[in-house]
Amino acid sequence: MVLPVYNEAHLAPKVCHDLRSFLRKNRLISALVVDDGSADGTAEAFQRGLSNVGKASLLALPTNGGKARAVRVAFLSAKADFLIFIDGDLAYSFDHIAPLLDSLKQHDVVIGSRSLAPQPQGGAPARRVFLGWGFNHLVCLLCGLDYPDTQAGLKGFTAEAAQKLFSRQKLDGFAFDAELLYLAKKLGLCVGQIPAQVSGEHTYKTSQVKLIFDSLRCLKDLLLIRWWSAVGSYKLP
Question: For the chain, which terminal residue's Cβ has fewer other Cβ atoms within 10 angstroms, N or C?
Answer without folding.
Answer: C
